[in-house]
User: What shape does this take?
Amino acid sequence: MGEEKSGRSHVLPLVAIGAITSLCGIALGLLIDWFPVAASEQAHDIDTLWDVLVIVSVPIFVLVETVVLYSVWKFRMRPGEELKDGPPIHGNTRLEVFWTAIPAIILVALCSYAYVVLHDIEEAQANEMRVRVVGEQFTWTFFYRGPGGKEIASNQLYLPKGKPVKFDVQSKDVLHDFWVPAFRQKIDAVPGITTSYRITPIKAGTFPVVCAELCGLGHSVMRQSAHVVSGAKFDDWLAKKQQGAAGGGGEQAGGGGAKPDGKALFASGASPACGSCHTLADAGATGTIGPNLDQVLKGKDAGFIQESIEKPGADVAKGFQDGIMPTNYGDTLQPEQIKALTDYLVQVASK
Ligand code: CUA
Assistant: This one.
């Protein structure tokens, strides 16, 4: 009886410690800025769901840890108790009903809430825009529907602010995952099927697009940009893109009307940038995923270099695998840009 009494006397202090720890944990969980800027309407619902999960989970974690730590300390084996068996305890039906029912109620409530949030963010929107997103090793291409149904390809994602958009996500080769962290949602790009999700961008700016599924050697460089701009700016960009105007709408370095700059294109203009995979001393690039261009381009002519950009599978450098370099530069770069890139590389190769 003495044991039990001293055990009970610990209950109040334990409850107090648990409550204070829980409050601190919840405060910390809510104060830490876990996520990037929320740039879509859906992001707010998702962030609120996260906050609710933190508020509910922290006290449960604290409760379990407090009981575990207290038990380890209180019921530890003392010297001379090595051969002692524990007290013969039988089940306590009331307690078991209680600790089964409470977690079940919490789980059902959280699942229902999460379902409602999911239902809301997946709901079809009136006048939504469609963008076809195609993943391949190791780049994304975004296809817009131009007038007359003709598709317009871009290696940068442009979205008009405030307009709902549905992404139809596809893959040309292996599993990828289309993710703009600022929009919060993501979905696998699965070969052979089209997956989709919707967001409504509400913040102008440039946000990273990343691949969130390990897809091969270049997975880490499968990064592009999502530009959220005003509706007028977007229409402008799309019209320019459609005309195939010099510079491809000016979103790439070396674009924008003037003669494209091959070196800038190499370093950061093309997407993914050549320099993220290739080494080229002249451009300060040190990538090692693809062949070292200081070595393999020596003495090569413009024909070979242009073909290597547009059809990388035609002549693969020794020791490297076919299919690693994106095959869509021929579509996503403007002819003038490919020419500028080729001219630049020819000039470097002949040094
Ligand atoms: Cu594509 Cu990782």
About this structure: The two ends are 92 Å apart (CA to CA).
